[in-house]
Design the sequence.
């Protein structure tokens, strides 16, 4: 095996490790959020919307924030809208644009889900830190500087 092959193998192993950590975290989040009848991706949408000034986003921004295709985002927003958690608003200056915004019920559910999410994430990272193959990635995550959030989001 040449040097180039070794580099590919190192990156592949790094990716597999990251994927394993992601799977562990997502499983723990799924278990925690299920009690509130929320999936991880639904929580991600509520979280993204809660961080917006005025608490709304264009659909394509929401798709990027949730790492979903536009059609998957539309289906998800429709489901959350049917549950009374989101609403869609036509953009006043661009009739093709649609904003998505949290309803008061969506905001309340998000506020209830946030500590559940955070505890589940903490449990998953604690478990991962005890696994030798995942511990270096967890250590790296703890070293990542978090952006300063506006006081309205804290």
Sequence:
């Amino acid at each position: 095996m040449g040097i180039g092959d070794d580099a590919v193998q190192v990156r592949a192993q790094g990716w597999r490790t990251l994927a394993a950590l992601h799977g562990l975290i997502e499983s723990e989040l799924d278990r925690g959020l299920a009690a509130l009848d929320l999936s991880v991706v639904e929580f991600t949408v509520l979280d993204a919307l809660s961080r917006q000034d005025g608490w709304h986003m264009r659909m394509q921004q929401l798709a990027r924030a949730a790492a979903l295709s536009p059609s998957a985002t539309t289906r998800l927003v429709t489901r959350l809208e049917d549950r009374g958690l989101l609403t869609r608003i036509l953009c006043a200056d661009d009739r093709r644009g649609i904003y998505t915004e949290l309803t008061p019920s969506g905001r309340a559910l998000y506020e209830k889900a946030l500590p559940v999410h955070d505890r589940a994430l903490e449990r998953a990272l604690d478990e991962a830190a005890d696994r030798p193959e995942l511990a270096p990635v967890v250590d790296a995550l703890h070293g990542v500087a978090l952006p300063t959030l506006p006081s309205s989001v804290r």
Q: What stands out?
A: The CA atoms of residues 90 and 98 lie 5 Å apart. The first helix runs from residue 3 to 34. Residues 149-154 have pLDDT under 50 and may be disordered.
